[in-house]
Design brief:
By secondary structure, this protein is of the alpha/beta class. The protein has three domains: 8-90, Arc Repressor Mutant, subunit A; 94-164 and 273-305, D-Maltodextrin-Binding Protein, domain 2 (3-Layer(aba) Sandwich), CATH 3.40.190; 168-269, 3-Layer(aba) Sandwich (D-Maltodextrin-Binding Protein, domain 2), CATH 3.40.190.10. It contains eleven helices and 13 strands. The protein has helices spanning 8-20, 23-30, 34-48, 64-91, 104-109, 111-121, 138-141, 173-179, 232-238, 248-256, 286-305, and strands at residues 53-55, 60-62, 96-102, 125-131, 145-149, 158-171, 196-197, 207-211, 214-218, 226-227, 244-247, 261-263, 271-278. A hairpin with a 2-residue loop joins strand 8 and strand 9. The longest helix has 28 residues, at 64-91.
Length: 307
């Protein structure tokens, strides 16, 4: 007896292509190639005897039959998802795969401890951590979650604030012995400061400072300008090349080991927000839900502990 639904993998391909918006994005999400998915769509259309998708080199759209089939197939897969979550909940173990994108600062200095604890709690969940300061296209590139600095640029995404990360100024003892220690913000003009060049504008990122209870933005200038990897300014500061601004959660281990010293403590107090973002999805996996809850709780407890 032949299997009635032997083409289910092709149906999943079709649903994923429509969910992701393109064959290329679906190929990334499914870990395969666009040509493989294109053949899968053709097989499904042959199986059903009708065209589901209009394809050009740059555009993809559903036919009327394709839209109806997508709605029914998506509904069916949602039923499968709900059944799996119910079973996983009964067995007490959550399983699944998560693609998470995070900036270098958070990926190197916040996430290792948190993800270590998370994977011990949920051994059935696999996480692919993408470390980049680029704002990835979550839908097109197939990411489930991302951690980003600043305000949410895309209103189509859901945002869960993790923390307001406090900033501080750092320099090595070697540098301070050579150049002296600044006592007020205006003294910084006489020092080698380490600017980071913003990829979006090509300009130096301003330092967020506070002086006489006033918030100020100050543009650092120095003989070395760092781009692409913001952690480069910290490496330069450790080498005695100048003063950098970074977050308390990065500075803590460096100052404890004597590699850097906090300066101008009277100017501290400013912060920048980090948020966890993800596309809205009624059928979000239990694995993603678990990680979202864990990260928001971990960030909240950490922020309260440092106050």
């Amino acid at each position: 007896m032949s299997r009635r639904f032997s083409h289910l993998s092709d149906v999943e391909t079709f649903v994923t292509v429509i969910d992701k918006g393109s064959i290329t994005a679906a190929a990334v999400a499914l870990g395969t190639t666009a040509s493989v998915l294109s053949r899968s769509l053709t097989r499904l259309e042959t199986q059903l005897g009708t065209q589901l998708v209009r394809r050009t080199t740059r555009h993809l759209s559903l036919t009327e039959a394709g839209r109806h089939y997508y709605e029914q197939a998506r509904s069916a897969f949602n039923v499968f998802d709900s059944a799996e979550r119910a079973i996983q909940g009964k067995s007490g173990e959550i399983i699944g795969n998560i693609r998470l994108s995070a900036p270098t600062t958070y990926a190197h200095y916040r996430l290792p401890d948190w993800l270590s604890r998370f994977t011990r709690l949920y051994p059935g969940i696999n996480i692919e951590l993408n470390i980049t300061n680029r704002n990835v296209d979550m839908v097109a590139e197939g990411f489930d979650l991302a951690i980003r600095l600043g305000q949410l640029p895309d209103s189509r995404l859901v945002s869960r604030k993790l923390e307001d990360a406090t900033l501080c100024l750092l320099a090595s003892v070697q540098y301070l012995q050579k150049k002296g220690e600044p006592q007020q913000v205006s003294d910084l003009t006489q020092h080698d400061c380490l600017p980071f060049i913003m990829p979006s504008s090509g300009r130096a990122a301003t330092w967020s400072l506070r002086e006489n209870n006033q918030d100020i933005e100050w543009t650092p200038k120095g003989p070395i300008r760092t781009s692409d990897d913001v952690l480069g300014v910290i490496s330069l500061a450790v080498s005695g090349m100048g003063i950098c601004q970074t977050y308390d959660f990065i500075a803590r281990s460096l100052t404890e080991r004597g590699l850097l010293k906090e300066i101008l403590t009277s100017s501290r107090g400013r912060s920048r927000p980090f948020s966890l973002i993800y596309p809205p999805h009624k059928g979000m996996s239990s694995a993603c839900q678990a990680l979202i809850q864990f990260l928001t709780n971990a960030a909240s407890h950490t922020e309260h502990a440092t106050r």
